[in-house]
Amino acid sequence: MFTILVSGCLGALTVPSENDLPAAPSAPPVAATQAPYPPTNKPYLERNVIIEVKRIDANTVAVTNAGGADASSLMGLWLNVNIRGYVFPSSGRVTSQAGSTAYYPVPEGSHITITGEFPDCNANLWVGYTSTATPAPTQAPAYYPTPGTTQAPSQTGDYYSRSYKWSFSGYDYTWDLTISKDAYDFYKSRPHNRQSNYAMYAMSDYDRTYLRSLVDKLNEASERDGFSEYESVMMVIAFVQSLPYTSDSVTTGYDEYPRYPIETLVDNGGDCEDTSILTAALLYEMGYGVVLISPPEHMAVGIKGGDNVYGTYWTYEGSKYFYVETTGEGYGIGQIPPEYEDSTAKIYPMQQLPDFDITFTTTYVSSDFYYVYYKVHCDVSNIGTGVAKNVNVYIAALALTQGTDRVWTPDHTITIGDIGEGGTAWAEATIRVPRGETSQIECIVYGDNFAPEIVKSNTFNT
C-alpha cells in the first residue's frame, strides 16, 4: 500500500493495494448530446480536472490528468520519494494539461504527495488510483438478425373450409376455399390497432396467395359470362356485400377489431371496416387504384375512376376515387347511403406500413472506480406489413442530471438491415453510467420506411 496526499480541494486519500482495487475505467465520465435519428457526433460535457494515478510496474507510476481542463501549477506533481529514509524530490514545477500523462519512478511502498492549484476546483475534481488490470471495456455492439423466424405462415397441416354463395346480374355463384389454420392463427396473433392506418391490413405480404386464388376465380367467371370491366368490378363488390354483417364485439370480444382479409374470409363476414379492407385488397390485387374512405363512424372503399364514371367521389392526390359501399347489398360504384352524403372523410391510401414492437432487458455487468456497466439486450419485431428497410437500433443511457437530450458515452447504433413482415432481430451493447448518477436506458428502432419507435426503462441510480 502507498498513500497519495492531495492539497487543494481534497484531503488525504489512502490507496489500497492493487488486489483490493476494481478494474480500471477506460475513460472518465463524459456526457453527450443525443441525436438518435441517426445519432451524430456529440460534444462532450467533461468534468473540470481528473487526476489519475496508475502503477505501471513495481518502480513506476503514471500520473494523468484525464479531465477536460488544465490543472496548473501542480508543483511538478511534487513527488517526495521516501526509500529507506532517503527523500528524492521531484524535478520541478509543471502544468498538467488536459489529457496529458507524466511518468515518475516510484518504488512500491513510497509516500507520494501531490500539491497544486486547480482552477475552478469543486466537487468535480476527481483524484483516483487505477490498477494495472485490463480496463473494464465497453463491449462492441452486436446484433443477430433473424428475419423469417415468424415470417410466412405455413400452408400445411389443418385447414378451414369455407363455401361462399352469392348472386350477381342474374347469375348464381359458389366458391369453395380452404385456408391453412396456421395462416389464420398468424393473422389472429398480429396486433389489431384501430389507431393505425387501416389500409395496412389490406397490404400484407402473406395472404396474397389466397387473394390471388379468389381473384382468379372471379376473373374466370367474369370472362365466361361476358362481363365488362365495370361489371367485373361490381361482381367483386357483390361478393363482399353478400357476406354477413357481424359486429366486432360479438365475434372477437373487442369493440373495434380491424380484421386482415384472411380473418374476414374464415370468420365469414365482419363489420364495415373488415369488408372494406377485404374489398380494397381484392381490387388492389386486380390492379385497380383504391383507397379506404372513412366518413364519421363508418368505412368504405374508393375506386379510382375517370370522367366516364359517375356518382359520389373524393379527390385524393389529384385523382377521383368513387365511393363503394361494402356492407349493404345493391349499392353500385358512386352510390352512397344518404346519411353520409355530405360528410367529410379520412382517406387511407394503399401502402405497406412496417411497424415495430420493442422489448429490452438490462443486466448488471460490473463496476469500477468511475462507472457501473450494464448489458442491454433489445428485441425488435416487425408487427406491421411489408419489409422494414435499413433497420437500426440505437442504445444509450440518458444523462438525466446533465440537461435535456444528453446521454452518457459511449452510445451505440447497431445496423441490422431489412426485416420482413413478422420478422424479428436483436441487438446488444454494453453501456456505462458514472457512479452517483440518475439515468434511464433508451432503445430506439428507426429506418427508411417506418416511424421510429422509442422505449425507455424506469429511472435508476448508480
Task: Please provide a written account of the structure.
It is a single chain. The protein is mainly beta and 462 residues long. It has three domains: 2-130, no CATH class; 142-148 and 354-461, Immunoglobulins (Immunoglobulin-like, Sandwich); 190-349, C8orf32 fold, CATH 3.10.620. It is built from six helices and 27 strands. It has helices spanning 181-188, 208-224, 229-241, 248-251, 261-267, 272-285; strands at 2-6, 13-15, 30-33, 44-46, 50-57, 60-65, 81-83, 86-88, 101-105, 111-114, 126-130, 142-146, 159-168, 171-180, 290-294, 300-305, 313-316, 319-324, 346-349, 356-367, 371-382, 388-399, 406-419, 424-434, 438-446, 453-456, 460-461. Strands 3, 4, 22, 23, 25, 26 and 27 form a seven-stranded antiparallel sheet that branches. A five-stranded antiparallel sheet has the order 17-18-16-15-19. A four-stranded mixed sheet has the order 9-6-5-11, with no helix packed on it. It is elongated, with a radius of gyration of 34 Å.
Q: What is the makeup of the main sheet? A: 7 strands, antiparallel
Average pLDDT for all residues: 73
Question: What is the overall number of helices?
Answer: 6
How much strand?
Answer: 35-45%
Low-pLDDT ranges: 1-50, 72-96, 107-152, 249-255
CATH topology-level fold name of the largest domain: C8orf32 fold
Q: What is the terminal separation in angstroms?
A: 28 Å
Supply the CATH class of the largest domain.
Alpha Beta
Percent of residues in helices:
10-25%
Number of strand elements: 27
Total count of domains: 3
Annotated CATH architecture of the largest domain? Roll
Structural class: mainly beta
Shape: elongated
Radius of gyration: 34 Å
